[in-house]
Amino acid sequence: MLKVGDKAPDFKAEASNGKTITLSEFQAEGKKVILYFYSKDMTSGCTVEACDFRQYHPNFEESKAIIIGVSKDPMSSHHRFIEKFDLPFMLVSDQELKIIKKYDELKEKAMYGKKYMGVERTTFLIDEHGVILKIYPKVKVKGHVAQVLTDLTSI
Fold first, then answer.
1. Of 15, 23, 46, 92, which one is the catalytic site residue?
2. What is the pLDDT of residues 92-138, one digit of tens each?
């Protein structure tokens, strides 16, 4: 289980901008990374969270931070999600669960009494050296993005 102060696991993935990205490339550019995991494009909570990140995107850019959203949705779904809500940041499709498992975000969940494995809504604030500065587990959407921005600017 990852904790604050740990080196964030690097990954290589195709992003919605059509490029293959790695976490380490952003470190090399001196960028902080807001890496957020969410369960599904177009669902109510995930849409609110993405739109909040969109609203505060210029503030994150000012703080030399990039936002990357990760879910197991296919890239075609990500493209529809980005287009519908005009999202200015990258989404990564992790259908093979490689990144999700590296960050230990595949958890047992329950809905209507039925248990299943799903992605837990969690955000990692990672510094320009790849160190995890803050982890926000089991995110409650309301006020979350504003809190991440406050924490980022106070570090």
1. 46
2. 999 999 999 999 999 888 878 889 888 999 999 999 999 999 999 99
Residue 61, classified by CB atoms within 10 Å of its CB into exposed (0-12), middle (13-18) or buried (19+), is middle
The reported pLDDT for the residue numbered 117 is 87
What three-state secondary structure class fits 139? coil
Task: Please report whether residue 74 resides in a domain.
Answer: yes
CATH number for the domain harbouring residue 87: 3.40.30.10
How many Å apart are CA 11 and CA 119, to the nearest integer? 17
Query: 6 exposed, middle or buried (CB, 10 Å; 0-12, 13-18, 19+)?
Result: middle
Judge whether 51 counts as a catalytic residue.
no
Q: Which domain holds residue 49?
A: 12-154
Q: Is 1 exposed, middle or buried (0-12, 13-18, 19+ CB in 10 A)?
A: exposed
User: What pLDDT does residue 100 have?
Assistant: 96
Question: pTM for the complete prediction?
Answer: 0.95
Alpha helices in 1-155 (DSSP H): 23-28, 44-62, 75-85, 98-102, 144-154
Q: What is the pLDDT of residue 118?
A: 87
